[in-house]
Design goal:
The chain is of the alpha/beta class and about 500 residues long. Helix content is about 25%, strand content about 15%. The strands form 5 sheets. The protein has a 6-stranded parallel sheet with strand order 8-7-6-5-4-11. A hairpin with a 6-residue loop joins strand 16 and strand 17. Helix 5 runs parallel beside helix 6, helix 8 packs parallel to helix 9 and helix 9 runs parallel beside helix 12. The longest helix has 17 residues. The protein is globular. The two termini are about 25 Å apart. The N terminus is likely disordered.
Length: about 500
């Protein structure tokens, strides 16, 4: 049996016995030893990233609300939350829910730590105790945390909020947090935060120093000499452009991150950046870590409208089928945990406890289930299956395949001829997979040769006439009929 085959069998039996992928401990996350474009646990089980941007979680939420938030996202199929230790909202000056600040005198080398951690003792329970509790709660529940050490503004200031003036300060702070959370197995370190590292003259070196500090703190070393052991950490860097632009050959960075962000509908960056990173020499996994948020204003202008569930799905399937190792979802009301007590950002207007159930969030699990229903580590993007010119803009079609299956995302219901014969088998079984509800429909059995045009179904029994246009997106699934795959997403 092949190495991947052994992993697949193990995962199959784990699922049969009720051990969901995110409900049991398989060790830290690392790069796949089978396919360098994907992530896995230390024991080899594949990990498909389904993240949520809970950026302000540590600042704004009580224990009870944070627990509820984590539990809801687990129920919705998410397996990692991106959250900031020193947050964007004046995180150095404004206290958290329990009226605590992170540092003494706004000095990043003087964390405000008190003796004890009793939640009922307002002196003992400090800023870092609160983070400790929530990181450990998430770990107990099987939820990973992508921790941003400090929002990028504090290293790369655009608004005069420079906190880390030297590389040594960044190293020392990195050492503190690396050492503090060295025993938590559910952590990914996501440096950066909306800032290109070279916006500051020595910015690249400052971030490298912070990464070195985190690794040394994790390993119990303290020597800023550029020789840290990064085998015990999983790290990336968050900004608009992919971290591959600056850090591709750095040992500290395990996978790349970037964001298609919020400027317009149908952004081709959703698949172009993924494709660029996929095709780099000595590739690393890549991730769209900040796409357009559901219910966020388009280009930050209220009159432009708001991103809706279809936009969320469109970006997610484009990115994943172009080769990302998963996807991060965001909701404009949830990332800031908006309620009537807070000033809205980017026209937030729905209480976060209601917005958490937005359709786009609920639909992320259908993408995850689809990917996990076929051998994920075989996947590679391949648009050669599309016959003729692939449109740009809203009609762009994106395909990914394994040896014996292929997924083709059809965003507007307009299906070009499909080239057959690019997967194994003399016969193929074709399905339509509905990204809105996770249901699949068997189309039929066909010869695996030549070209064929498939016709998408209507949106529902009541609206069979509606099969094309905005929101009429489908995934065409093609399987080698001899493999006996089950329904897509099951």
């Amino acid at each position: 049996m092949s190495r991947y085959g052994a992993f697949a069998v193990l995962l199959f039996f784990l699922n049969l016995t009720g051990f969901a992928q995110t409900k049991t401990s398989h060790g830290r996350l690392t790069v796949s030893t089978v396919n360098p474009h994907y992530l896995q646990y230390e024991d080899g089980i594949p990990f498909f990233w389904v993240g949520d941007t809970g950026w302000e979680m540590f600042l704004r939420l009580s224990r009870e609300d944070a627990e509820w938030y984590i539990d809801q996202r687990i129920d919705q199929g998410f397996n990692i939350i991106q959250a900031v230790l020193i947050t964007e909202f004046e995180g150095v000056k404004i206290p958290n829910y329990y009226h605590d600040l992170p540092f003494v005198d706004e000095d990043p080398e003087k964390p405000a730590i008190t003796s004890g951690n009793d939640i009922n003792d307002t002196i003992a329970y400090d800023y870092w105790d609160h983070i400790d509790y929530l990181v450990s709660y998430a770990e107990k529940k099987g939820m990973h945390m992508a921790l941003l050490p400090a929002w990028g503004e504090y290293v790369i200031p655009r608004e005069d909020r420079l906190l880390f003036k030297t590389a040594q300060q960044a190293y020392n702070y990195g050492w503190f947090i690396g050492n503090r959370y060295k025993n938590n197995k559910n952590i990914v370190w996501m440096l950066g935060g909306d800032r290109l590292p070279d916006e500051r003259k020595d910015g690249v070196e400052v971030w490298r120093a912070m990464a070195e500090g985190i690794a040394d703190g994790t390993n119990g070393e303290k020597n800023m000499n550029g020789k840290a052991d990064y085998s015990t950490t999983c790290m990336t860097y968050h900004s608009f452009s992919s971290s591959s632009q600056w850090f591709h050959n750095d040992d500290w960075i395990d996978f790349h991150s970037w964001g298609s962000y919020h400027s317009d509908f149908y952004l081709s960056r959703s698949y172009e950046q993924a494709s660029y990173d996929w095709n780099m020499p000595k590739p690393k996994p890549t991730l769209n870590a900040e796409p357009a948020y559901e219910l966020h204003s388009v280009n930050w202008i209220e009159g432009n409208g708001f991103f809706m569930p279809y936009d969320v799905r469109d970006i997610a399937y484009w990115s994943v089928f172009a080769g990302t190792c998963g996807h991060t979802y965001g909701n404009n009301n949830v990332w800031q945990f908006y309620d009537e007590k807070h000033q809205p950002i980017s026209f937030a207007n729905v209480n976060w406890k209601k917005a958490i159930f937005s359709p786009g969030a609920e639909q992320m699990k259908y993408l995850k289930k689809l990917i996990e229903s076929r051998p994920m580590l075989e996947m590679e993007p391949d648009n050669s299956i599309i016959v003729g010119q692939n449109p740009t803009g809203s009609g762009h079609i994106q395909a990914i395949k394994g040896k014996s299956f292929a997924f083709i995302y059809i965003p507007t219901g307009n299906v070009p001829p499909i080239k057959l014969g690019i997967i194994s088998g003399s016969k193929i079984r074709a399905w339509w997979y509905n990204p809105r509800n996770g249901e699949s429909t068997l189309v039929g059995l066909f010869d695996n040769s030549g070209e064929k045009t498939f016709v998408v179904p209507g949106m529902s029994k009541e609206m069979e006439w509606l099969s094309s246009g905005r929101g009429c997106d489908w995934v065409l699934v093609i399987d080698d009929a001899t493999k006996g795959y089950g329904d897509p997403g099951k």
